[in-house]
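Lecture 7 notes: from sequence to structure.
We start with the chain below.
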Amino acid sequence: EGDIKKEQLDYLKEHEQKVIDLVKAQNSKVESVQIDWNSMVIEESGNGTPQGGGYNLSISGQINQLKNTKFSVDFYLEDKNSIPTIKKMGMLHDIYIEENGGWKIFS
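Predicted structure tokens for the same chain:
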């Protein structure tokens, strides 16, 4: 389990620039992207069928050196031990910024 997680993380680190480019493409005000490598999470994806919808690996972080921002980049996995692929990378959520005690979409 530990080795697989390291392989998955190594793949993400090798493709760091692609992850950064995806986040930057969401908004022209994104100048820099800080990925939190400790934030990797793998969750089962439900799609309403008995066999389920595979797994989602996500990695998150901040933009523009702002601690009150957050983004998450998602990778579809066949199973939880699959190595992620850039071909199945996307963002299921917007970039958020915390203002006045609540999260709102960064714009």
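Points to note: Helices lie at 2-14, 16-25. The mean pLDDT is 94.
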